[in-house]
Amino acid sequence: xxxxxxxxxxxxxxxxxxxxxxxxxxxxxxxxxxxxxxxxxxxxxxxxxxxxxxxxxxxxxxxxxxxxxxxxxxxxxxxxxxxxxxxxxxxx
Length: 92
Known about the structure:
This protein is of the alpha+beta class. It contains three helices and three strands; from the N terminus they run βααββα.
């Protein structure tokens, strides 16, 4: 599947007033709209197919990570399971 990628940025206040058109552009044009708070990207409206793909990738990564830890636990080479944050906060 080919996902056309275009992106725009707009303040949350503007997106609030234009939510219908913003979601339509995501759904029908494949457009990603980054919502800005105080000039920084705070959230995004993306096509559902993109969000679903990200969820599938996360599920695969989680499954592989769990399988790896379970194998280490079974082998006795791992005693605890550390929490690892996969996302980073954007500081720019």
